[in-house]
Each structure stands twice: as C-alpha cells, then as structure tokens.
Amino acid sequence: MPPRKRTSFAAPASPNGRARVAPWHRLRLDPDFLEEADLYHRGYRLVAGVDEVGRGCLAGPVVAGAVILPLGWKPDGLRDSKMLKPEDRERLADAVVEHAIAWSVAAVEPSVIDRINILQATLLATALAAARLPVRPDALLLDGTLHLADVTVHQRVIVDGDRLCASVAAASVVAKVFRDRLMVELDREYPGYDLASNKGYAAPEHRAGLRAFGTAPIHRLTFASCADVEQTTLWEAVGDGVGRVDPEGIEDGQELEPSERADDLVPVGS
C-alpha cells in the first residue's frame, strides 16, 4: 500500500470549532503549520497557539504560554515540551522569544487554584496568556478539548495540539521553560521538597518533604496528596492572587508577581 500523502489531511473546524485530526496524523513527532495555514487561508492572519503546563503538580502555579509564529518558521527541533531535554527546551524557548511575532506567559497561583479548582484555573491561565499578547490574535489554537468561554476570538481546539501544531508546541516550550525556572527559585525559598528537580510534581522526594515538613504556601491544598498533610508554620504566607506575566524576555530566575484577582480580569475579545 502506498504511503498516505500529507495533502490528504484536512482540518476543517466542525460546528463546535474542534478540528478533525486523522489518527495517523497524531503519530507525528514533528509539529507543522497545517492548522495555522488552514486558518490563514480562511482569513485569520494572526494565529496564536496556546498551551499550559503544571496542571498536575502538587506545588507552584499552572502556567500558560501563547505564541504567534511567522507562518512557516519554527526553530529546528521543535517538539511538544514534554518530549524535549531541558537544554533543548532552553534553546528553543530563546529562539521562539527572539523570532516570534508575539508571545506571552501567564500564571494562576496555588491559592486561586484551590479556590476555583484546577480546571477553571487552567482555563483562566490560558485566557490570560492570550489576552496578554502584545498584538490581538485573530484566532487561537488550543491544545486539549475545551473552549474558552466568553472569549469571542475564533478558537480551534485540537487534541494533541502540542504535538501537531508548531505554534502550540512553541507555546508549550515557552511556558515550560518559564515555569521550570520559577520552580528552581521556589526551591531556594522553600527547601526540602526538591522542587528544582521535580518541578512540583509528585516525585518521591517531594512526597518525603511533605511528610517531613508539611505543606508550604506554594502547595495546592485541595490536591489529595496535600489535603492529608498538615500545613506547616515554617513558611511565611504569600499573597493571594493571579500571576500575570508578560516579560520582555525569559530571565533566568524571574519570579511571578500576583496582580488582578480572577473576578477582575477581562478576557480577550470582550
């Protein structure tokens, strides 16, 4: 049987805006611009890929990145951030920041995650990242299965979008590098949980730290592994808020600052 031609793939949006992706297409490791080009030819000139990282962590914020790439340009070796070595993510993030038309990152802190739940916090971080782009996007490519409510910009939701779409993969890399650097800083502030290595995930060393020291203000107290642990008084409480970040570049060790509360935020498109 002859190999399937790439031109046989089409990704028209269904009535609910979700792209139909052929199963064979999901096996690719090299993201391309098929989705971006399809939207471009439909009249959407500034297409932003958006992705989040840190959703399943026990500590630290959930962070989303948004990137608008020049159509057809991507750094060599771009992949879903989860498939890359740390040094490759650093190189790719630097290239994306240098060459992207626009990019941004946004974070929602653990206290807000506990208040509104991780799903809503993830959607909030995603909307914030899109809203913080220095230029308004015409369309959003979202990794996953859920749309952003009350956001009027055209959206296309793609399962495995971070593996398939170049702009979504770029967003995943930028968000991952930013969050990883933040967790290294938090490891210095809250030692004992090995956050520099596990980045807040439920690694054995992290769980051992929870048993030894209890939870810190950076932990998500509504998550099962933290809910059963007493909150320690060793750490000074931090402010409650949503971190919104739109730095000029990804600085090593840059910290997130809390700003507007969730109910004060205006989504993109309003």
Structure in a nutshell:
This protein is 34% helix and 12% strand. It has helices at residues 23-26, 34-41, 86-99, 110-116, 118-131, 161-164, 166-189, 195-198, 204-213, 224-227; strands spanning 47-53, 62-68, 102-108, 139-143, 154-158, 244-245.
Describe the structure.
The radius of gyration is 19 Å and the shape is globular. The protein has a domain at 28-180: 2-Layer Sandwich (Nucleotidyltransferase, domain 5), CATH 3.30.420. It has helices spanning 23-26, 34-41, 86-99, 110-116, 118-131, 161-164, 166-189, 195-198, 204-213, 224-227; strands at 47-53, 62-68, 102-108, 139-143, 154-158, 244-245. It is an alpha/beta fold and 270 residues long. The chain has a six-stranded mixed beta sheet.
Name the CATH class of the domain at 28-180. Answer: Alpha Beta
CATH superfamily of the domain at 28-180: Ribonuclease H-like superfamily/Ribonuclease H
Q: What level of helicity do the residues show?
A: 25-40%
Radius of gyration using CA atoms only:
19 Å
What structural class do the secondary elements suggest? alpha/beta
Give the strand content.
Answer: 5-15%
- The name of the CATH topology of the domain at 28-180 is Nucleotidyltransferase, domain 5
Based on Cα principal axes, name the global outline. Answer: globular
The largest sheet is:
6 strands, mixed
Task: List the total number of helices.
Answer: 10
Average the pLDDT over all residues and give the rounded result.
81
Q: Describe the oligomeric state of these chains in a short phrase.
A: single chain
Strand order in the largest sheet: 5-4-1-2-3-6
